[in-house]
Structure formats: C-alpha cells, structure tokens
Amino acid sequence: MKISLFATLTAVTLAAPAFAQDAAKGEKEFRACKACHAIVAPDGTAIVKGGKVGPNLYGVIGRQVGSLEGFKYKDSIKAVGATGAVWTKEELEVYITDPNAWLEEKTGDKAARSGMTFKAKKGQGDIAAYLESVAK
C-alpha cells in the first residue's frame, strides 16, 4: 500500500508541470502568433489585432479543424478536419509545437504540410489556455 501511494504521489508530482496552464502567460506568449493571427469576436470586436495570413483564432478550442468559413486552408489540414477532428487544448499544443509533424501523424502522409511555419518552443499549453479564455 505504501509503495502504491508513493508511486501515485510521485507520478502526480512529476506530471504537475504538464497540467499547469496559465492564460496570463499565454497572452504574453501569443505575441509571437499575432504576426499571422488575429483574435476577433463574432461581433467584430478585435481582442488581438494581428495578421490575416492565418485564420482568426477566436473560438478555436472546440472548433472543427480547418473549418473557419472564408479562410483558405491547405489540403492537409482540410483532410484532418474532414475526419471530424476538433481542436482541443491538447491537440493545439501539439500542433503549434510542430505543425507539419502533427499533420503527418494525423493524415499518415509524409508530404502533409501546414501553412504555419512557426514552431512554438515554449508555452504551448499557456497559449492554448489563453485562446480558450478569450472565447468565454
């Protein structure tokens, strides 16, 4: 019993950083994203003024992948969306770490490419938490 309890506490302690997500930190980390992405509410309110190279990220968490009306997505991400895949915080974290690798895994196509060339090196969970927070 003691060993099991110790193992559980150790596992929770080691996993804790993976669960830690801070929307305030994510807002700061998002500054790199706004070169290509804006966050604009459905009523037209600009939460973050940014570029239009990438899709509007308002409400991205919970949205079907590659489905924002009016945005021209690459074929690979549209293929993932066609499976019914929905953006979760966890999926977005993996995607922004390496978009092409995520698409290759999801499609099984080694030639799958994203229009997103940026790869987040830190704060991916915080960015996802921030994006979720602005759409509430």
Protein architecture, described:
- The chain has helices spanning about 1-20, 25-30, 75-80, 90-95, 100-105, 125-135; strands at about 40, 45-50.
- The protein is globular, with a radius of gyration of 17 Å.
- It has about 140 residues and is mostly helical.
- The chain has a two-stranded antiparallel ribbon with strand order 1-2.
Write the layout of secondary structure elements.
Blueprint: H1 2-19, H2 23-29, E1 39-40, E2 46-48, H3 75-82, H4 89-97, H5 99-107, H6 124-134
Antiparallel strand pairs: 1-2
Helix pairs in contact: 2-6, 4-5, 4-6
Secondary-structure element order, N to C: HHEEHHHH
- N/C terminus separation: 43 Å
Write out the strand line-up for the largest beta sheet, numbering strands in chain order: 1-2
**Shape type:** globular
Largest sheet: 2 strands, antiparallel
Structural class: mainly alpha
Mean pLDDT: 88
Radius of gyration: 17 Å
**Continuous helix count:** 6
Work out the helicity level. Answer: 40-55%
Which ranges are low-confidence, i.e. pLDDT below 50, for 5 or more consecutive residues? Answer: 1-19
Count of strand segments: 2
Fraction of residues in β-strands: under 5%
